[in-house]
Amino acid sequence: MNQRVRKEVVSYQEWRWLIIWAIVILVITTIPYLYGVALSSSTNQFGGFVIGVEDGNSYLAKMQQGRSGYWLFRLVYTPEPHQAELFFLFYILLGKIAGLVNLSNLVVFYLSRLVTIPFGLFAFYYFVAYFIEQIRVRRLALLIFGFTGGLGWLWLVLGGPSELGRMPVDLWVPDASFFLSSLTFTHLPLGQGLLLLLSVASLEFVRSGRRWFGLVAAGCGLGVSLIHPHTLPVISLLLGIYILWQYYHDKKQLLIRFTRLALIALPAVPYLLYVFVVFNRNPAFIAWRLQSLTFSPAPIHYLLGFGLTLLLAMIGLTLTWRRAEPKYRFLYIWTISVPVLVYLPIPLQRRFLDGYQAPLAVLAAVGLVWVIDKVSNHFWRTGFLVLLFMSLTNVLLVTGAMITIAQRPDTVFIASPQAEAARWLAAESHQSIVLASYQTGNYLPTVADVRTFIGHGPETIESETKMAMLSKFFTLDDDNFRRKLLLDYRINYLFYGPAEQALGSFSPATTPYLKNVYDNGTVQIYQVLETEISN
């Protein structure tokens, strides 16, 4: 690598242009949520999410843990006692900030996007500037990275299945799309930005040994490990392959470069070892790991999910390969390695997509410039038309989110009586365990320091078994089963609203071991009386 990153690599005009587009993507990805807030009323409140509602609530629940005074993360969607561990520090810190400034978790969640989304875009532009000198290629790369998707829109228009795992990845896998990451969860743009800065700083430190780049790389490596522990090992593998390609002919230089790579990874190693031990020793986290399966879909869903970007990237790879410039080798390695990694026989397959759009966008911009120069004399006019076509999936995602919000489904909007009852729990209970429907159980920990019997697929231990038990509790005329469930799982409260009433004919009002402690006319909360339940 013979190109250094210097302050003057990216001009002031470029940064100003980048700021404009960062504002544009912030506005576009915020519009659905502002629409949801605008539709809120005294009877229904927008819950804050329309895509990935269950996961979105789980992140708010992690913020609530920080707000409640915790530094360690515990699984709040399962009743089993277990040791808390050091995970999701970003969201726990956001929760502490929310408590400090006395704003709701949801408001702070969305305010954080004002930082993480521009950070991700700025980091990408720094990444592309490391490899590309031509400004128009850099700008095209940024627009491809920030705004485009694949051919998921065509899949849906032609009537393809819309279930998760059975459609192109640009429709449902945020790791595959910066736009979808920006539209969903605030930690994803942050993680991608740290990954891209880690890549550039590592390449420069490996090349030159300059201390500043080593410190930046080590810091980013530790930071991204706290968000996604799998990321540093993967990028280290790619950097290791790059080092072998660059210096295989010189054993001394090979040793020096691998030593520098080891120094970059060293600060994060203790935490990564800690993660490994926790997920192999802590029973609750083992159960979580076994249920957190992110297997890859069929190859066609990757091909369609990256669509024209992938085709243009192959053109860009061919063009740059012919130039035989060493600086592109890391991009080649990343581009070629991920299709292999996503089908390794381990449950983390889709996780290896993290940041993959970045090298594709750089090479696709090279390919697109070449194509436009061949077919048109109007570079930017043609370029924007192509980019608009490549962005149709994201147009569809935003439009679909708006249509869903307009219908006010109960998965997206929280009925006021339910919110009021949740606030009562927040004020009256501390570390209580609550029995409620799956949907209610997913919501309650976002506003109260409680754990629920069930509420999140991976984070509820034996979630399928608990779902069957929940159904039996409300449908079977078996009081012994109910008593045993409440005792075995140390349930403190029964939340009884419309969602719970719909589960079956069970009437808690006539049950001697349940005491009505809250009633707003729509939702009742019953306290479990341990002295009565044992009789």
How does this model look, in words?
It is a single chain. With 535 residues, the chain is mostly helical. The protein has two domains: 7-46 and 104-403, no CATH class; 415-533, Rossmann fold. Helix content is 63%, strand content 5%. Strands 4-3-5-7-6 form a five-stranded mixed beta sheet. Strand 3 (432-435), helix 20 and strand 4 (450-452) form a beta-alpha-beta unit. The longest helix is centred in the N-terminal third of the chain and has 28 residues, at 12-39. The protein is globular. Residues 1-8 have low confidence and may be disordered.
**Radius of gyration of CA atoms, rounded to a whole number:** 25 Å
How much strand content do the residues show? 5-15%
Task: List how many beta strands DSSP finds.
Answer: 7
Low-pLDDT segments, ≥5 res: 1-8
Number of helices: 24
Helix content: 55-70%
> How many structural domains in the coordinates?
2
Strand order in space, largest sheet: 4-3-5-7-6
Give me the secondary-structure category. mainly alpha
Distance between the termini: 76 Å
Mean pLDDT across residues: 94
The shape, in one word, is globular
Largest sheet: 5 strands, mixed
